[in-house]
């Protein structure tokens, strides 16, 4: 028995270095995506658009910094680059509030927003760990009509970034508005979401250019950040 034990230990010692060498290097521990206005990967996760693997992991569109693709260079997420798919377009005003939901918070260099390769906004992350939900007011400048906004989260201590594309119709409504956080008003008839209010099942609010219905009692949970099985049901753009 002692001979067998010694042999097993010896084999384990030989195999361990091989396994260590063969395991892939880990990427950044940060993960996140834009939930409002509803991004392409959020629509995939919600089943609004028929997508592939990305519907299971909307937070994982990670690639080298400097890319200008919705898929972050991942072939398995190629659906995100397909402009011909039936992506839901959010009507917005001259500005809109973009909300990132971060499932793993990592030190941030900055957030950037692009339309057609042109940078329209940048927000400094100060190399600090962000909150679980980060909202930023983006001004679209002179852009109007239907546009694809590429949102980029640049990580501070790795060479990687996270990518998220959002389809908007600038001037097609006020789903973001110059007034800031709620994104209501314009064609939205439900009252704007209030973080301090208690909502009950069946109550409706407007937020991010969408109408939301509470499935049960809730207070403080922001619409669009609780996921498909969360408290808020997305009733669509308003």
Automatic annotation (TrEMBL):
InterPro entries: CBM5/12, CBM_sf_5/12, Cellulose/chitin-bd_N, GlcNAc_Chitin_IntDeg, Ig_E-set. It holds the Pfam family LPMO_10. One of its GO terms (molecular function) is hydrolase activity, hydrolyzing O-glycosyl compounds. CDD domains: ChiC_BD, LPMO_AA10. It comes from the Bacteria. Residues 190-235 form the Chitin-binding type-3 domain. GO terms for biological process: carbohydrate metabolic process. Keywords: Hydrolase, Signal. This is Chitin-binding type-3 domain-containing protein. It comes from Streptomyces actuosus. The keyword Protein biosynthesis does not apply. The lineage of its organism: Bacteria, Bacillati, Actinomycetota, Actinomycetes, Kitasatosporales. Residues 1-30 form the signal peptide. GO terms for cellular component: extracellular region.
């Amino acid at each position: 028995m002692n001979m067998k034990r010694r042999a097993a230990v010896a084999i384990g010692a030989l195999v361990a270095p091989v396994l260590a060498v063969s395991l892939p290097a880990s990427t950044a521990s940060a993960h996140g995506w834009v939930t409002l206005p509803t991004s392409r990967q959020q629509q995939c996760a919600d089943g609004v658009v028929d997508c592939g693997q990305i519907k299971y992991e909307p937070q994982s569109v990670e690639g080298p910094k400097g890319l200008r693709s919705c898929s972050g260079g991942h072939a398995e997420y190629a659906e995100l680059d397909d402009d011909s798919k039936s992506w839901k377009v959010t009507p917005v005003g001259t500005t809109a509030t973009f909300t990132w939901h971060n499932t793993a918070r990592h030190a941030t260099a900055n957030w950037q927003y692009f339309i057609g390769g042109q940078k329209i906004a940048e927000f400094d992350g100060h190399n600090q760990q962000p909150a679980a939900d980060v909202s930023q007011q983006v001004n679209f400048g002179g852009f109007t009509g239907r546009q694809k906004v590429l949102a980029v989260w640049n990580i501070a201590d790795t060479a990687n970034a996270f990518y998220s594309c959002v389809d908007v119709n600038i001037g097609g409504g006020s789903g973001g508005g110059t007034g800031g956080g709620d994104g209501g008003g314009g064609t939205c008839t439900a009252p704007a979401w209030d973080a301090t209010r208690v909502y009950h099942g069946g109550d409706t609010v407007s937020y991010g250019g969408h109408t939301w219905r509470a499935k049960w009692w809730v207070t403080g949970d922001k619409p669009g950040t609780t996921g498909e099985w969360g408290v808020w049901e997305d009733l669509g753009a308003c």
